[in-house]
Design goal:
alpha+beta, 8 helices
């Protein structure tokens, strides 16, 4: 991750919080980046040095209007294009999301379970994690049958391993030392 992408993401996070529209900006930026990466014509128009800056800004304004993008996102896109940093869009998006979450007190969690969880089980698990971390939790769930049972939760650099597999490993180590 480049320091340049981090600076752009931090600046956009400042604007998002100032305007109290973090989620809207996150959603709109993701939608634009997806469109940008999916359209060779749009990429060529915005990245070509042969296209004048005012024409690029008109293109961005037209695309933003058609997509219904937030003004802050439109202005951010213009800034990125004007500074010839379009290659950073893919890098800025996740950095911005992480930065915004950090500033809003939201922690991202990766939850891996042996089986799929019901909605009520997910809700209960998130409630426990929120109490434990003191932050709102945004979780991504996955399944791994090799866990046998239980769950492994990663919040930032902290791992909570309550899997049956890990409990069996600890029991084996304990028996080996005796």
């Amino acid at each position: 991750m480049s320091a340049v992408a981090e600076r752009y993401a931090a600046a956009l996070a400042d604007v998002a919080l100032e305007r109290k529209s973090g989620e809207a900006i996150r959603k709109d930026l993701a939608a634009f980046v997806e469109t940008f990466l999916g359209s060779a014509d749009l990429r060529n128009a915005l990245e070509s040095p042969a296209v004048d800056g005012t024409v690029k800004n008109k293109i961005i304004t037209a695309v933003a209007a058609k997509m219904g993008l937030n003004d802050a996102v439109r202005n951010f896109i213009c800034l990125i294009v004007d500074h010839r940093r379009t290659h950073l869009f893919q890098e800025i998006l996740p950095v911005f999301s992480t930065e915004l979450n950090k500033r809003l007190g939201i922690a991202e969690a990766e939850v891996t379970t042996a089986r799929s969880l019901s909605d009520s089980e997910k809700k209960d698990l998130l409630s426990v994690l929120q109490r434990r971390t003191g932050k709102k939790i945004e979780a991504h769930f996955a399944e791994d049958a090799s866990l046998l049972g239980g769950a492994v939760v990663r919040v930032g650099s902290t791992v909570y391993d309550g899997s049956v597999r890990e409990q069996l490993n600890r029991l084996r180590e304990q028996l080996e030392t005796e």
